[in-house]
Write a structure and sequence with these properties.
By secondary structure, this protein is an alpha+beta fold. Helices cover about 55% and strands about 15% of the residues. A five-stranded antiparallel sheet has the order 2-1-5-4-3, sandwiched between helices. The protein has a five-stranded mixed sheet with strand order 7-8-6-9-10, sandwiched between helices. It starts with a helix and ends in an 8-residue tail after the last helix.
Length: about 375
């Protein structure tokens, strides 16, 4: 039978509730794959096998056959036909006069439900196949064999030779939503609002780790920024969720474009900007060339004898200060403290590190330290200084 055992069991339970009788569903080999009586699942059903082998329109298990044959009970069994092909057999347990009145109705219900499940599961399989292809293409796991990748794309109507731009998008602070059922439902609604307009203009969407990777036809960066702004406004207006976007730097290939867009998206995640273009990145690109150990060593040298809690507090302070472009007044307002308190905290940071964030010659070192800390804190493994 071309449906899953889970779907088969759901069909049996749906029909059983309506007719108030025990229902069995057998596959094309005569094996019971679903039943209201779970103990019978997996048993071989002789009546079902005889229907399939002898092309019978029905087969009733009489009290005599019930005693004679193993694993059968009295009742009527009918073939299930979908698109002219026998997919299996449905059985209704009970006396003939009781079950015969349900026979054709149950048969038709089963055929309709199975056809619907076959279509649904076929679509789901197609979606999984396409998602695997997109992962191989965009994330780069299938680039070792570009010819095979191209052929797979062709079977799905995707020409990988067409120039495309890449955008990575998600809700800001997506971790807040993934931990609860309500949050996950909200993220699905967000993804739908992004998915529909992108596909409407011929775009391709891959869902990956609570974010979406968008492939769009080649266009100038201002046009992509405008699209991101429109998507952001729609989501915020309808669902009150803030969005972040990373736009590629017009790489020659899709995988390279994804890496650029992903880098920009990561940067947007810890900045005050909702939309960041790879072309605008500067200092952030240095982090890609540094190993995890080198990043940790840089932080150790900057923060010296600070505890992990102190480092986290200083980084939070720097985030606000740099986001406010070095304005003490604006930073103080963001932190709900007096301007003098802000001055004191920055002075204390300067005493600890030997670097004053208020001085243009020393601020870049602290800015890089902040970026490295935020980058490491979003990665795997525990931060140890």
């Amino acid at each position: 039978m071309k449906i899953s055992k889970r779907s088969a069991q759901q069909i049996v339970e749906e029909i059983g509730k309506l007719v108030k009788q025990n229902i069995n569903l057998m596959d094309e080999t005569g094996r019971i794959i679903a039943s209201n009586d779970h103990a019978r699942v997996g048993n071989f059903h002789t009546g079902a096998y005889r229907i399939i082998q002898n092309h019978l329109s029905e087969y009733y298990i009489t009290p005599e056959l019930e005693r004679e044959l193993p694993n059968v009970r009295r009742g009527i069994n009918l073939p299930i036909e979908v698109d002219g092909e026998v997919q299996g057999v449905i059985g209704i347990t009970g006396e003939y006069v009781e079950v015969i009145k349900y026979g054709q109705i149950v048969k038709k219900m089963a055929e309709i439900l199975i056809r619907e499940r076959m279509i649904l599961e076929g679509r789901q399989l197609d979606q999984r196949v396409q998602s695997r292809f997109l992962e191989d293409w965009i994330l780069g796991t299938g680039l070792n064999n570009p010819q095979a990748l191209s052929e797979r794309g062709f079977t799905m109507g995707i020409d990988i030779r067409i120039p495309r731009r890449c955008v990575v998008v998600s809700a800001r602070n997506r971790e807040r939503y993934t931990g609860t059922l309500e949050g996950q439902v909200l993220l699905e609604q967000v993804e739908h609002l992004v998915d529909v307009p992108v596909r409407a203009q011929g775009g391709i969407v891959l869902r990956n780790a609570a974010r979406q990777i968008l492939l769009l036809h080649k266009q100038e960066t201002p046009a992509l920024v405008k699209l991101c702004q429109e998507l952001s406004q729609t989501v915020e207006k309808q669902l009150h969720v803030e969005m972040i976007f990373g736009i590629d730097g017009q790489s020659e290939d899709v995988h390279g474009a994804y890496l650029q867009a992903n880098r920009a998206w990561h940067t947007a995640a810890y900045s005050d900007y909702n939309i960041i273009c790879f072309e605008k990145l500067r200092t952030e690109l240095l982090m890609d060339d540094l190993s995890r150990e080198n990043k940790l060593e840089y932080l150790r040298r900057i923060f010296q004898n600070c505890s992990q809690e102190e480092i986290a507090e200083y980084v939070s302070l720097l985030e606000v200060f740099f986001a406010c472009e070095g304005s003490l007044q604006k930073a103080a307002e963001q932190l709900y403290v007096h301007k003098n308190t802000m001055q004191y905290r920055l002075k204390r940071l300067a005493e600890v590190t030997g670097l004053d964030a208020r001085k243009p010659s020393q601020a870049p070192s602290l800015y890089l330290a902040m970026l490295l800390y935020l980058d490491l804190s979003r990665g795997e493994g525990e931060l140890t200084f």
